[in-house]
Amino acid sequence: MLYDHVDGLRERLAGRRTHALAGSPGEAAGTRQALVEREAVVRLYGRRTTQLNAAENALCFGRLDLEEGEQGPRYIGRIGLHRERPGATVDDEEPLLIDWRAPVARPFYLATAMHPDGVIRRRHIRTVGRRVVQLHDENLAGGTGAEPGSITSESALMTALTAARTGRMTDIVETVQAEQDRIIRSGPDGILVVQGGPGTGKTAVALHRAAYLLYHHREQLERRGVLIIGPNTTFLRYIAEVLPALGETGVMLATTGDLHPGVSPTRTDPGPVTALKGRLLMAGVMAGAVADRQWVPQDDDETVAVRHDGQLLRLDRQACLALRDRVRAARLLHNEARPLVHRLVVEELTRQWAQAVGADPLGGESLLGPEDLAMLRRELEENGDVDGVVDWLWPALTPTRLLRELFASPRRIRAACAQVGLTQAEQDLLEREGNGWSEADVPLLDEAAELLGRDDSAARRLAEELQTANLEYAQGVLDLLRGSESGDFEDEESEILAAFDLVTAQDLVERQEEADHRTAAERAATDRTWRFGHIVVDEAQELSPMAWRMLMRRSRSMTLVGDVAQTGDPAGASSWHQALAPHVGDRWRLEQLTVNYRMPAPVAKVTAGLLESLAPGLPAPEPVRHDGPTPWRRRVAPGALAAELAGAVRAELATLGQDRRLAVVAAPGRAAGLFAVLKPLMTEGVALGQDPDDDVPARVVVLEPRETKGLEFDAVVVVEPERIATSSPRGPGDLYVALTRATQRLGVLHCAQLPQGLDGPWWSE
Ligand SMILES: Nc1ncnc2c1ncn2[C@@H]1O[C@H](COP(=O)(O)OP(=O)(O)OP(=O)(O)O)[C@@H](O)[C@H]1O
């Protein structure tokens, strides 16, 4: 019945869309307003159809039977559906399916036998396509007993947790747990931090929270947009299908490296450089770099000069210093101060000129009156040399130019750091050759953009050029139509009105301008200053202080999820207080997730040992699955590692069975070598890859620890953990990440001793 209802809705929407596209006849038809309205209506129908399509799988997954006296039963699903009754108001419409995010759906996630909340039975409905294949009932009212063969929602959860991993994250809407539900439904205001160990569902919760907030605050959030920040593009691909499956599109997914429109990081900085660029004092370095570009002559002999009407007018060091002080006192952003610089230069030159030509040879008052001076000023304003002087003293700067020229010059670096107190060795780290930007440069570019402000003159010029180009293009289109007319029509048909009889090029351009119907996310992607309605940051522990500074400009409504024990970035945080205090003091709230949904208990035990040495006192999440295979470890001679690895992977695949995926994780720099070792597997029909980003994820992937961040696999084989732990100052955190990716099986191959915390009785040999 529900699917029939959806089909009917889809059909009606398609009909209305076609009707809207055809346009309504009448006086207003063809006006700009009618076009805009039509576009809006068509987009609305399109969005609604997308939502209906997204809900096709597992449209309805739950049912609540309520105590007598309550209405019921309630069916819970991915979207809300109502039976429309002619003449009924929205409130009277009969609910057929309740959106999982609606308040009345909440008992589906929260009701327990202890606190049934009016629910006597909770039913999980499993469907394949449009067919119901399984029902799981939980009787929450005492005495009724479960129906034979029924299982509890714990079983529905277990089914989800033990399913084969596909390489893409799926939603958890059918089995959200109480502690997760509370976070998902918490209000949007302020900054919410969700701390939880590996596999506690932080990513899942963050994405469902985004869907929940969009549902309850749709108008505001669709206007301002929701931004989801992840640690790398691999991770973003991994999570990309969750929100569309929940019917929510139009959310912007990005890394912090994507936040400066026009810049795509391609460069990898060494760890110490990343760490330095992430420090808050870089804000001072950027301010110093801008100040350094507000130039004055270095000694008293040096001047800048303007030739005017045969006279050479000069600004010496003292004049330039005075001018710079006056401009700085106005506290304008660098580029926005340029008109003031221009005005003051003209003022000074006018003064000098008046002195030169208007001086009374007899020593009396100037011979020039106010009108002469005004004329002089106007002449100087139009003198191109003055523009040159302004460019010299106070150049128009883009953030990229400022940084490129800064990093290319030891002198500029020294000047920029003068007030900040970086050692010479640290200053040397900033120097670099070649082009290209790194992720750590992006917050610096953002900082620079804040200090520089806009240079409106260039933007205005560009807008004018664009307008002229558009007009020319539109005129060209009309000319083309006119040109193709004569041969095509017979005499009597040439009476027919053509487009060029009805519209001018200007009309066409205006119509194009109105046709910008991009979503907030699309517009935000091209606007550095866009303020989002809400920002979700996943793996938030990885952000540097400078990256936090950049993000805080984009919104103060945030959900930050992460685990300070998993920090891998050299500039990342070791505590939430350390990360947030410089930006928002203690104005943030903390929620914790405590249940480990990913790893079975035997794997969790191994990783808990490492956690204790990594972050003493941080509790290890409690695994929800108590059984599972015991992790294995095998110590091998260095020469035998390659052969042992190939054998171990073969054995793991055989144990796992078809459709299950495995990751081999090794220290940075070793993945390529191990990939070569495993290549023969390909001749055995095993898809092998080095990129979890592949369109069709390979069955076996060889990765470095940081590439596995946020991902999970049915089985994981970690090669030489000691080498991972010692590969960088954040090595132990990287090892912890690698070991916590397995949903079923974990194995370790090692030549050296196991690192501290990992050596224990929990392994099978
Ligand atoms: N309530 C739930 N129902 C079903 N599956 C769940 C639930 N909560 C979490 N999971 C599953 O547990 C796994 C781990 O979740 P997720 O990746 O969100 O954890 P995480 O805390 O972000 O982990 P990490 O910090 O290691 O990246 C995923 O497969 C997720 O789908």
From TrEMBL:
ATP binds at G196, G197, P198, G199, T200, G201, K202, T203. The keyword ATP-binding applies. Keywords: ATP-binding, Helicase, Hydrolase, Nucleotide-binding. SUPFAM superfamilies: P-loop containing nucleoside triphosphate hydrolases. Residues 175-600 form the UvrD-like helicase ATP-binding domain. It comes from the Bacteria. This is AAA family ATPase. It comes from Kineosporia corallincola. The lineage of its organism: Bacteria, Bacillati, Actinomycetota, Actinomycetes, Kineosporiales.
